[in-house]
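Input C-alpha cells:
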C-alpha cells in the first residue's frame, strides 16, 4: 500500500496560485457575491428569529385572553364547584375549542387533575405541565411538551367569589417553530431575502462589467508587473516620450522628456499624489505647446526649446487589443523628442 503525504499548506498555496491568475473583475465578483449571500443569510435568519418570537408572543396573548374569558365565566365557576365538573364542562370546552380554533382546552382541579380534555381517556389524569403560578392565583403562558404534543399554552386560575382557586383553565395550540413563523411573517422574510439577493446580483453584475472594461481583464499582479515593466522601458529609451490625453493634460512623460523640456520630475509612486499637469500650466515653447494641444500627426518637426533644437514626432496613441479581444478607446497622442 502506497501512502502519499501532502504538505499541510499545499492546498492553501494552490488556492493562492489560483487566485493570482484571476482578474480584478473575477476577484471582486466572487468577494461581492459571497458578501451578498452572507448578508442575505444573516438578514433572513435574524428576521426569522424575530418572526418566531413575535409569533409566540402573539399566540400566547390570544390564548391568555381566551383562557381568562373561560375562567371568568360564571358557568365555569359554578361547574368547578359542582360534584361532577366533567359532565358540564367537557361539552362546553369542546365547543369553545372548535369556535376559537384551539387544539385543546383543559379545565382541571387545583391539584391538577383533568376535568376536561379533547381525548376523554385523559380525563381524571394528572395535567402535564407547569401549574404553580396558577395555583397561587396568577395567570401565565408557557411552551410545554404536553399530552397533545408540544404546545403554546396559557394557564389561568378559576376563582370563586371569595377569591379562592377552585380550578384552572389551560388553553393551547400545538405548534412548531416553523409553523409559527409561517403564520407570522415568513412570506415577507422570503420576499425581502429574494429582493436582497436579486438586487445584490444585479449590482455585482454591473460592477463586474465596469471593472472588466476598465481593467481590460487583467489581474492586480499582472497590472503591477505591466506598470513596472512599462515604466522601466519608458525611462530607458534615449528619446523623450510624452503622452497627452484628450483633455490636454500630460498623463505620462519620461525622465529624458523632463530633461529636454525642463519639466518637474514625476512622482515616484501614486502614493505621492496624482500629477497630470495641463499643457498651459507648463513653461513650454509656444510652438511645441500648440503641437501637443492640437494632437495632429507630425514626423520630425523642428522646435526650439531655449538653446536646444528638438526634433518632434507625434502620433495618435492607439492601444493594442486587450486580452478580452476588445480595443480600448484612444487615450490621446504620444510625442517623441530628440535633441538635434
Amino acid at each position: 500500500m502506497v501512502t502519499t503525504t501532502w504538505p499541510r499548506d499545499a492546498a492553501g498555496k494552490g488556492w493562492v496560485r489560483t487566485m493570482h491568475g484571476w482578474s480584478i473583475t473575477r476577484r471582486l465578483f466572487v468577494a461581492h457575491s459571497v458578501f451578498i449571500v452572507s448578508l442575505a443569510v444573516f438578514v433572513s435568519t435574524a428576521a426569522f428569529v424575530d418572526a418566531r418570537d413575535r409569533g409566540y408572543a402573539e399566540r400566547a396573548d390570544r390564548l391568555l385572553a381566551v383562557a381568562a374569558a373561560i375562567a371568568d365565566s360564571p358557568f365555569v365557576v359554578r361547574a368547578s364547584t359542582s360534584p361532577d365538573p366533567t359532565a358540564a364542562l367537557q361539552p362546553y370546552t369542546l365547543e369553545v375549542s372548535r369556535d376559537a380554533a384551539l387544539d385543546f382546552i383543559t379545565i382541571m382541579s387545583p391539584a391538577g387533575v383533568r376535568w376536561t380534555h379533547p381525548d376523554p381517556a385523559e380525563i381524571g389524569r394528572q395535567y402535564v405541565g407547569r401549574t404553580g403560578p396558577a395555583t397561587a392565583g396568577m395567570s401565565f403562558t408557557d411552551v410545554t411538551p404536553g399530552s397533545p404534543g408540544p404546545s403554546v399554552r396559557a394557564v389561568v386560575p378559576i376563582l370563586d367569589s371569595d377569591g379562592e382557586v377552585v380550578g384552572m383553565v389551560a388553553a393551547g395550540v400545538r405548534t412548531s417553530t416553523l409553523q409559527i413563523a409561517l403564520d407570522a411573517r415568513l412570506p415577507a422574510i422570503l420576499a425581502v431575502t429574494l429582493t436582497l439577493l436579486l438586487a445584490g446580483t444585479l449590482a455585482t453584475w454591473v460592477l463586474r462589467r465596469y471593472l472588466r472594461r476598465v481593467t481590460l481583464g487583467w489581474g492586480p499582479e499582472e497590472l503591477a508587473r505591466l506598470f513596472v515593466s512599462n515604466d522601466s522601458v519608458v525611462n530607458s529609451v534615449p528619446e523623450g516620450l510624452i503622452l497627452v490625453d484628450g483633455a490636454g493634460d500630460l498623463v505620462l512623460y519620461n525622465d529624458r522628456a523632463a530633461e529636454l523640456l525642463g519639466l518637474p520630475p514625476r512622482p515616484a509612486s501614486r502614493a505621492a499624489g496624482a500629477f497630470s499637469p495641463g499643457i498651459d500650466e507648463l513653461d513650454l515653447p509656444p510652438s511645441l505647446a500648440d503641437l501637443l494641444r492640437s494632437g495632429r500627426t507630425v514626423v520630425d518637426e523642428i522646435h526650439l526649446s531655449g538653446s536646444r533644437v528638438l526634433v518632434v514626432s507625434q502620433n495618435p496613441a492607439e492601444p493594442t487589443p486587450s486580452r478580452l479581444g476588445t480595443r480600448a478607446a484612444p487615450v490621446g497622442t504620444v510625442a517623441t523628442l530628440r535633441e538635434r
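Confidence is low (pLDDT under 50) at residues 1-8. Residues 108 and 114 are 4 Å apart (CA to CA).
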